[in-house]
Amino acid sequence: MTDPTEPYAEDVELMGRAQLFHALARAFQYPVAGLTDDVLDEEFLAALSESVTCHPAAGSLAPLFEAVEEAFSSRNGSARGNRGGAEVAGGGESAGPTISEEYTYLFLRRTKVPLTEASYGLELTFGRPRDMADLASLQETFGVRVAPGTCMSADHLGVQLEFLAVLLAKEAYARAYGWEDEAETCRAARAHYLTEHLTGWLPILSVRVERSARLRFFPAVVALAEGAVRWEHSECGAGEVRQYYDRSKLKGGDDADAPAKAGESADAPSKAGGAGESAGAGEDPGDWPDTGSVFPCGSCISPQLPK
Prior knowledge:
By secondary structure, this protein is mostly helical. The chain has ten helices and no strands. The radius of gyration is 19 Å and the shape is globular.
């Protein structure tokens, strides 16, 4: 059996990628009593920086992280425009909201930008129950469940990013112990998960956030998450993604006529490619104990696998 105290470079790389998604998930957890402002601190930024620096795609992710870093440093400084801000004496840009206030403005109340996969699905009647069942099956198979009272469903972006981190961490653990079958199961489940869920709707979310946000912070974080997810999709050989679309353009909402991000269409998300077929959601990863309620996203994601 492989000695886990002597990790291979692949194991370290997998854990670094897991840490990246774990950190990104923290930006989207429900801001109870200012939780988002408390969680998104210098430690959050340091975790992102370390993960991006060690990432295989550091060259393409570094500019995206720099945008997050810049937005984070000015998060309580100036808004992107005059919407929702008070004029600063002497002119200049308007005073911006806090991150918690921006979270509420974008993702709660009128929900200008839904953070759930079901909000972007094509099948309104039967699509959500099917997708939720698939997500619940995946999470249960790998010993993960959403903790009660988190106000987040299984298809919430924060939960989906955290679960992707769990899959990567479990694969790293399995490879460290030489469990090739279990490691390949994790990889196959990751390909299925990205193909059927996260990769498809994240580009549309990115467009919605970009055109609705007052602060630069959430557009920058979503762009970094999108870049990292696209790389994961290609790396694990995931298949062609499902089609999602921006339903707000059909409803004629506040931002129905707003321009999409340059080079992107809100109606036709980019199809991150990659050869290979996706694995089924019900594959057994082995005799692994329940890791318990790992959410909210600030919790530890290290898998509890048998030694």
